[in-house]
Design a protein that fits this description.
Keywords: Transferase. It holds the Pfam family TusA. With 48 residues, the chain is α+β, with helices and mostly antiparallel strands. It is 25% helix and 44% strand. It has a single domain (6-46), classed as TusA-like domain (Translation Initiation Factor IF3), CATH 3.30.110.40. The protein has one helix at residues 16-27; strands spanning 6-11, 30-37, 40-46. The protein has a 3-stranded antiparallel beta sheet, covered by helices on one side. The relative contact order is 0.37.
């Protein structure tokens, strides 16, 4: 994937709300948006 690509991740893992920001921070990706959904969370990530 090219740098700047937007990736939409849907998860039902309750700990993803903690894990995804750490993942993005450690790997240099930008966490653009976090949304609570009926079944968990949705994350919009911009690849570094």
């Amino acid at each position: 994937m090219a740098s700047g690509t937007l990736i939409l991740v849907d998860t039902s893992d309750p700990l993803a709300v903690i894990d995804m920001p750490h993942f993005c921070n450690e790997d240099g990706h930008e966490l653009v948006e976090t949304e609570k959904t009926e079944n968990g969370h949705r994350f919009l990530i911009r690849k570094r």
